[in-house]
Structures are given as C-alpha cells and as structure tokens.
Specification:
Oligomer: single chain
Radius of gyration: 27 Å
Largest sheet: 6 strands, mixed, barrel
Strand order of the largest sheet: 3-7-4-6-5-8
Order of helices and strands: HEEEEEEEHEHEHEEHE
Strand content: 25-35%
Helix content: 10-25%
Number of strands: 12
Shape: elongated
Structural class: alpha+beta
Length: 277
Amino acid sequence: MPLKNNLLQLAALVMCFALAACSSSPNNASKKNMDPNKGRYSLKNDKLPLNPPNVDNVPNATPKYEPYSRRGNKPYTVYGESYTVMNTGQGFSETGRASWYGEKFHGYETSNGEPYDMYSMSGAHKTLPLPSYARITNLENNKQVIIRINDRGPFHSDRILDVSYAAAYKLGMLGKGTARIKLDVVYIGSVAATNSAVASAQDTGNHYIQLVASKDKAKLNAMAKNLEQKYQVKTRVQAANNMFRLQLGPIGQPELADKLLNNVKQNGFPEGYIVHE
C-alpha cells in the first residue's frame, strides 16, 4: 500500500506541473523579453528570394486618398518599447538608416492586415499611420522610389524604415543591406486631390499636358488658377506663334501624366495631349 500511495502522489505532482505549464501563456510573459513574431514565420532568418522575378519594371506606388485602416494604428509595445502612432503623416520628413525585408515575411500579414508582397513597392515604419505614402531617397546614390507603408518596424534603434525587396532593389541597397535615406510623406488628404498631388510633389520631371491655346492671355491665366486648385498641379502659360498655350506640369513620371491626361479629357479638355521636354 505505501508503494501505491507513493505512485498516486507522484502522479498528482506530475499533473500539477502539467497544469501549470498549460496555464503559462504569452500574455503572462514579460513584455520586455517577449518576441511578438516568435513561431510566426517558417524561416528563422530573412533572406533573398531564390528565383526572384525581374522587378525593373515594377512601378512606384501611386499615392491616393485612403482612410487610415482600423488595424495597426493603435499604441503598441514591442521588446519593452512603447510606440504611439501619429494622427497624420502630413508634412512629415525623416532622415536615417533603412533596411529591407524579404523571403521570411513574404505572404504573411502586415500590421494593417494585408499580405506582405516583397515584389511590391511597400514598407514598414514604427509610427506613421497606415497606410501612408512616402518618397524615399537613398542619400548615398540619390536614387528615389515611392512606397506605400502598410506595416510596422523595423524594431532596431538605429533604423527608421524597412522597405520591400523591390524597393530595396530600385534604391540600390540590396547588396549592402542598409542605406542612409530621407523619407518624405506624400500626403493625400481628400479624394479630389488623389489624381495628381503626387505629380505636384515630383516637379523634377519634364512632362506637361497641353490643354488649350488662345490669344487671350488673361483668360488663360484665370483658367490656370482654377486648374491648379482643382488638380493640385502647377500650370504654365507659354507664348507660341502669336498664341498662348495653357499647360499643366511639370509632372515627374510618365504614368502619372497619362492618368492625369485621362482625367482632364473627361473634364472638358478632350483635345489634351502630353508634351515631352
């Protein structure tokens, strides 16, 4: 009987340990030491894709008005550090080091619930509201891209931004892994501003949209003011062959010029066309 009692006590002790182990959860763990991504990804370390597609022709993200998402915009804590998300990204600029993320995270949910696509022009920031659009300049080679920020990170004190594989490729930072960058938010505050606010922000291009020609310069100047307000793009009135030409521009990228041209054709300027200079 004593042996039987000892076995019963041992069994009870084992059961107590088992129950204690089951009751332990990440919610009871110290936040300071907790890895929010532990066990989430199939790869332990990030890496380059084995057979990546050609991303030379992947276009920049096209800024447009989007309401901030319901997910990913509340205060949060990672590795013992607390972060408060900005109410708006309007006017925000920042300079620092950027890194990139790839295969390990590909296909998994970003912080606002969308799947991460390393072949898109996207990125992660600690406190910008999601989604946000930003122009990223590699200060080491002056290459630029526009990305859509839909994720949180990087959680390293010496980095301000993670960019996708495609964005890192276009910025020329894949080999080195990090680069010193400047981030400028491209803020689109309303549906009306969506079509061309980014074109105004990128006034280094040489594309113009020819709208109308007239001998009445004063009339064209008045039209120009209204069009600048409507499309949020600069205008110019040029003299040519005893006439004056009203044009929208400059617009930095041809695909943006094409989109704006389609818009103005549907809004009173069916004879509009693009002028390349």
